[in-house]
Amino acid sequence: MKAESLSPIEHEMLEISDLVVEFEMPGGSVRALDRISFKVREGTTLALVGESGSGKSVCAQAILGILPTNAHIRSGSIQFRDPKKKGHCVDIASLKSTGDEMRSIRGGQISIIFQEPMVSMSSMHTIGDQVSEALFLHRKIDKDQGLQLTQEMLGLVGFRNPQQSMQLYPFELSGGLRQRAMIAMALVCHPSLLIADEPTTALDVTVQKQILKLIRRLQSELNMAMLLITHDLGVVANMADEVVVMYHGRVMECGSVEQIFNKPEHPYLQSLLRAVPRFNLAEGERLNPIRGSEDKSNQLGDLYKPWEESQREHSHHLSIRGLSKFFIRRQGNWLGKTTAEEHIYAVRDFSLDIAVGESLGLVGESGCGKTTLSKMLMCGLEPSAGSIVYNDRGTSVRLLELRGRSLEQFRPKMQLVFQDPYSSLSPRMSVNDIICEPLLIHNIGDRAYRNKRARQLMDLVGLPVQALNRYPHSFSGGQRQRISIARALALSPDLLILDEPVSALDVSVQAQILNLLKDLQKELGLTYLFISHNLAVVDYIAERVVVMCHGQIVEIAQAGELFKNPLHPYTTTLINAVPAPDLNHLLDFNSKDIGISQPEYWPAPYTLSPHVSSELVEIETDRWVRVHCDAK
Amino acid sequence: MGYVLKRLLLMIPTLLLISFVVFVIIQLPPGDYLESYIAELQAQGESVDMEKVAYLREEYGLDKSFGEQYLSWVTGFVQGDYGYSFEYDLPVSEVVGDRMYLTILVSVLTIFFTWIIAFPIGLYSATHQYSWGDYGLTFIGFIGLATPNFLLALVMLYFANVYFGTSIGGLMDEAYINEPWSWGKIKSVLEHLWIPVVVIGTSGTAGMIRRLRANLLDELHKPYVTTARAKGLPEVRLLLKYPFRVSLNFFIADIGSMLPSIISGAEIVALVLSLPTTGPMLLGALQSQDMYLAGSFLMFLSLLTVIGVLISDLLLAVLDPRIRLEGGVKK
């Protein structure tokens, strides 16, 4: 450690002791933080780990003095000693949150990066305006100088053209750049402490890696301490010096990152570590959800008939051939007359077979066309070209030729589970209505039958039958996703498209849902198309994995094979960008991932460009890689 | 710039379409002004000079086909000839005269009145949600919303007369009616103006306070507000720079629909206060099938609406970068 000459008391720049925060609720007060104590030392990173609702964010809010109006610090202290002002010490807990002293600390000495860069910035103001704001608030400088500093900061966080970027609005930037702007906004005043509240949770793995690298670099350049709030143990292993594990507003365990990962003592921490899907899981190993879900009895005889051998052998469950979807971007003059046309491919020449009962993983970064593909499969979006053939228990159905009544009759065979269980369930319908709705739409059974079916489905997904009369808001994220799955299963589909079903959930809940999905597949013989950007999750659930980039398949392989021995450079980069919750497999921040999402920069023979045609080549059995045509 | 030009050009077909619809509606009732005039005369037992009627019918083109009538009306309209009012026996432009300007004056002032009152109260209510101040202001707002306008108008007329000696009704002292504009006249107009502005504005203000409060409450808990607070921004500046700015959008989007609703909603009040605005006259014209007068009024109202929508769209584009920058991209 570089700051050894400092006395220990100065070394600890933030010291929280016995902090209690309570929320005033209509039914009495709720304790969000219960005697929390920890210390952040100068220039180091402390990670605050826990599930949602464990009080991590309340802790950050308390430090910044931005607690909601119904929350109060009951007791305890938050001692803050700014290393730039020697011998100065304030107790944040005793300051008035809107007072001048607190405001000068907030944004000037302590600043924060939030999780969702899109909603955390105002889309009505330019980047330059929002980034420079804190500078003009806390430093007495004139306008030109301030704008100059802001530009320098934007350059520092990786904007290629800072001067132009000043005039941009947040919605004109990609997610990664937005988060960079957010970081610039937090760091422009060179704070002594940066609070990063889930800074990379909303980002793709490759972007996450870049952002983590950036934060680390800036941290050492500006010699700043960091309080990293996250639920991702992989990020913790790669970033933290010390770790505090929180559960229900209490500190469960704290110590150095080596202690936490190598000798976890508290049972909660131990089970948390076991709940994370990793690449090196043994064959057949199950994730260990922290809170076990109730065992369910299965009486699904009337819901699902197993496939007969002849039906199974008829063909693949789903055969996609040459599926493409492009959007046309028109540039027009002011009369609306088109002067230039550009085809933008969301999905390009996509061909894939999914076997009956297979669980196929589809991996790719945001914007690679995963969701467009799933919409086309569900006949919700008209493809520009291609065909989809579905094996309906022995008869081939050409999906794209279905219209009107026949399409409606086909719909029950394929169902979709959505990513966000919070917005995909209507808050105005009871769970019973939600689960019965698909049956109602397709006129299946009478009321009594539908209610019986709802009870069976609740049982199937491990929720109590009594919960049927409740409304979605009274359920947690994981329970809501169970309801979504029950709704998708209501029509007894044979194929389920799962579009990022666990990415909005906590690790422990994620483990439960993944286990549930695995069990359901085994019991009901379902076919899954599992779409995700989380490679470890795909590795756990899928047998075969398709990697997609820019609307095209770049690699297909068996799951184990793919993760052990990726062939395509894009796959390699994706896998290398996943932070493992393991101190022996840290991210290599020095590797060069230039142009990873630009196929023109991939090394030969994988280089792709719009002018060169490419094809999928079967390198080994069941192992396909996209190379350009002359490479053979 | 192209956008503005495009919008202006788009107004032409819009107005043409409206003019057609207006003309059809005016023509819909059976008969025309002359027929109801004859019927009235006969009912009073007077003899009707059929030759004069035939002459008038030809003079005003009432015997021509629908298409021809419409065409001559529209072409005249463009040239500033709004047709002839049968009832007043005068060209429409003379009948309308100052009324149009006074109507616009009352409406615009009402909008400003509404905003000036609604903005601070709305801001206060939203930031002090569920406080006594919030409840009190909300209560007053609801009273404003629930009181019939004409009642309020009568009450205010009475008090204005008793305490300020303002003459009852009208927008100016009787002495100034039909007089050329002078300082005295302007003073008199201003003295009378505040009553209709307050009366017409009250109900709108109450509604606007509620909407601003609701909009702001939505915005106040958005993450970007927390971000700004975390920068150390003082509360009032924060409020005005971020959430208020966003919630302004709907006010501006409202301008287009506010103009006509104020003008048409104010008619009863205008009758009660006997304001020399267009409302009462439009009512009369519609009742007596004075088609060119009614048509001209309706066209003016539509023109105001179209202009109002244009203004609000342009302002929105200026204020909201999302509209300005994303609007250009087409799929």
Taking pLDDT < 50 over at least 5 consecutive residues as the criterion, the unreliable ranges of chain A are: 1-6
Share of β-strand residues of chain B: under 5%
Helix count, DSSP H or I runs of 4 or more residues of chain A: 21
Q: Can you write the helix and strand succession of chain B as a string?
A: HHHHEEHHHHHHHHHHHH
Chain pair sharing the greatest interface:
A-B, 39 and 30 residues
CATH class of the domain at 98-323 in chain B: Mainly Alpha
CATH topology of the domain at 98-323 in chain B, by name, is MetI-like fold
Strand order of the largest sheet of chain B: 1-2
Largest sheet report of chain A: 8 strands, mixed
* % residues in beta strands of chain A: 25-35%
Could you characterize the architecture of this molecule?
The complex is a heterodimer of chains A (632) and B (331). Chain A is an alpha/beta fold. In chain A, the strands form four sheets. Chain A has an eight-stranded mixed sheet, sandwiched between helices. Residues 1-6 of chain A have low confidence and may be disordered. Chain B is an all-alpha fold. Chain B is built from 16 helices and two strands. Chain B has helices at 2-27, 33-43, 50-59, 66-78, 92-96, 98-127, 132-146, 149-164, 183-220, 223-230, 235-241, 243-265, 267-272, 278-287, 291-319, 321-326, and strands at residues 84-85, 90-91. In chain B, strand 1 and strand 2 form a beta hairpin. In chain B, helix 1 (2-27) packs antiparallel against helix 15 (291-319) and helix 6 (98-127) packs antiparallel against helix 7 (132-146). The longest helix of chain B is centred in the middle third of the chain and has 38 residues, at 183-220. Chain B is globular, with a radius of gyration of 24 Å. Chain B starts with a helix and ends in a 5-residue tail after the last helix. The model of chain B has no long low-confidence stretch (mean pLDDT 79). The interface between A and B is medium-sized, with 39 and 30 residues.
